[in-house]
């Protein structure tokens, strides 16, 4: 049976203990550009720190999703009023609703290529026209071993991500890096 959390349920306690604030400022900048009260889904939210809290502090209407039951339990302890589903992002129905924005930091490259394609397709469908997406993935093409889980991670590379966004009705609007040189892609649903 495939582990939908890509190994993160087994190391949830360790991940929670070592998760830094990396990405917080990049997400804070993105979130501050969104209209107050807009509906945002945090995909691959983990235990909610440090990124879900940025969205909540920004006055956004947040829902979340993570495939690890242990991460979801920790998330519910921190944010009891925020709806969260425990399911694989690449197969999610995203609460059978649409959102003004979607965040997927530290997730897409954990998935095989077909899972990455399914995730972007699903996120595009879950975004309203004009909806905004922010996700992180290296700009380079390549594979590496995740140091916490031992699973293979893969980046399709900036050219492939740009094409994937376009195929799914999304326009790449910006790319930038955070303080740890993690690469972000910002897109808008046409």
Major sheet characteristics: 7 strands, mixed
Taken from the alpha-carbon principal axes, the silhouette is globular
Average predicted local confidence, pLDDT: 96
Name the beta content range: 25-35%
CATH class: Alpha Beta
Widest sheet, order of strands: 3-2-1-4-5-9-8
Characteristic key phrases:
seven-stranded mixed sheet; 190 residues; alpha/beta; single chain; two-stranded antiparallel ribbon; globular; 30% helix; Rossmann fold
How would you describe the overall organization of this protein?
The protein has 190 residues and is α/β, with parallel strands linked by helices. It has a single domain, classed as Rossmann fold (3-Layer(aba) Sandwich). Helix content is 30%, strand content 29%. The strands form two sheets. A seven-stranded mixed sheet has the order 3-2-1-4-5-9-8, with helices on both faces. Strands 6-7 form a two-stranded antiparallel sheet. The longest helix is centred in the middle third of the chain and has 14 residues, at 113-126. The N and C termini lie far apart (37 Å). The mean pLDDT is 96.
Short description:
With 190 residues, the protein is α/β, with parallel strands linked by helices. The chain has a single domain, classed as Rossmann fold.
List the helices and strands and how they pair.
Layout: H1 12-18, H2 24-32, E1 39-43, H3 51-57, E2 61-66, H4 69-78, E3 84-86, E4 99-104, H5 113-126, E5 127-136, E6 141-145, E7 152-156, H6 158-167, E8 170-177, E9 183-189
Parallel strand pairs: 1-2, 1-4, 2-3, 4-5
Antiparallel strand pairs: 5-9, 6-7, 8-9
